[in-house]
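Open question from group meeting: does this chain pack into something compact, or does most of it stay loose? Before anyone orders reagents, we agreed to write out a predicted structure and look at it together. Recording both the input and the output here so the notebook holds the full record.
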Amino acid sequence: MKRLKAVPVVSGALVGINVLAFFICHFSDALYRAGILSAYAVLEKGQYGRILWAMFLHSDIGHLFNNMVILFFLGAMIEKEVGHVKYGVLYFLSGIGGNLLSLLMKEVTGDMSGSIGASGAVFGLDGVLLAMVLFSGRKMDDVTPGRVVFMVILSLYNGFKGENIDNAAHVGGLAIGFGAAAVMCMIQRKMERKSHIDIQQNIPD
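Structure tokens returned:
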């Protein structure tokens, strides 16, 4: 079981699905038409599935490569620490949260453009990692709050500096990932303290 936990099953599967979707889109734009995230399609036509499907679509090979490299290596590290199920929940919460904030900003600003990509969820992993180094109480090799904060700031800066970037999805994913992981860490530490107290109470004098 320990060996299985160390294998990044979910991260690998997510990368595989994203690559497969990109490969399919190379031959047909049907997935783009069905999955691109736009305020009109979601809020006016009620196509809510786009909030999820857009997370698996990418505009070009560079877009795909950048997201998948971070997803696999950062995701594998987090998945090993928290387990497959918790990691999957955190990833999808981040991606969906990022896309919801993106939709809100599109609606408020009247932006009719569409957006795609896993970057909201990937930014969520940055938030998860930051919450873990701050609240988990466990040390992670070569990972410090300062390094994670620098990585987050650099990633956000590159996003705001670039063109045609859905920064709302980045910020939303980052915030949701951080918040969800912080709650998870606090609950876990509370359970560990309770377990420790119970063990001590059951030790005979």
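Observations to bring back to the group:
The chain has a mean pLDDT of 89.
The radius of gyration is 19 Å.
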